[in-house]
Amino acid sequence: MSSPAVSSAGMTPMLEVKDLHVTFAGKGRFGRGHSVKAVNDVSLHIDRGETLGLVGESGSGKSTTGRAVLKLVPVEAGEVRVDGQDVTGHRGAQLRRLRRQMQMVFQDPYSSLDPSAPVGASIAEPLRVHEKMSKQARRDRVEELLDLVGLRPSHADRYPYEFSGGQRQRVAIARALALNPRLIVCDEAVSALDVSTQNQVINLLEDLRERFELSYLFIAHDLAVVRHISHRVAVMYLGRIVESGPVERIYEQPAHPYTQALLSAIPVPDPKRKGAKRILLSGDLPDPSAPPPGCPFHTRCAYAMDVCSQVMPAMTPVEGGGQTACHLQTSGPTLAGRPLPRTEVPA
Length: 347
Ligand code: SF4
Description:
single chain, alpha/beta, 20% strand, binds iron/sulfur cluster
């Protein structure tokens, strides 16, 4: 077993994932008997107080990666370390202790809130399970948590249906904070909210991150939201990370053709970039139970070369920070920042 990595700041990362593999049985497009490699050789890290945005199309494996980090799905191979401790090697009470440090906020707060109980009871649930506290101390902590997320102490006695979507997500965040976690996996946590409520919840997450030095794995398909909240971004395609790097480099100079296509779909408010072209991807996401050989993106890539259908590209450093898995980085011209010549249509 390898020893924990050291971040660029010389500290153990809050989260370190190495060579993670998750496979589900019998869920292929062609029915039973086909296993699906939902997460394939994924490595990433998140420093203390840092937010890593994880993006990709539906079915890219980003949510499964988040769940695997929390051991909510079985890990086939690889290593997950939280604050230097190997989560994959822990079971039972040891795992429960480690789990206190990592929580999840889902898209639909109903999945974590009991609709038939006052929200105070849902927020208190992890305290009841993990902490020896008097009833009054639990009530005090629930009220403190509600205050932290911008709700009133009296809200503890209300039921989930009495809240708006944004308020319910605040309750879910209060519940996630109950045990003072260090890492929160936000899985499409603001996707169901309208834009103005999204902004409020993002600002709340930012305040909480700064105040408690939280680390976030922020999983989302909305690239504009991810840009707003993330320090670094990782892009997933067909279960693999195909590019990662600092948020500004990824958004200003995406190196992987898939990242370029994803980003071209974001509406551009900047008048200087009004003429930017949208890149249409040809074809559908390949069946994950029968991924194409070589580069997994070669069936939809406008730049595919012979080598692409035969050899899996290795992760290679990109100027400006981060890495990408594309043969163009080693065998062709670097695309970062250049316009794409093919498969373009006016936005
Ligand atoms: Fe396209 Fe080839 Fe790069 Fe894959 S390796 S993204 S197919 S150019």
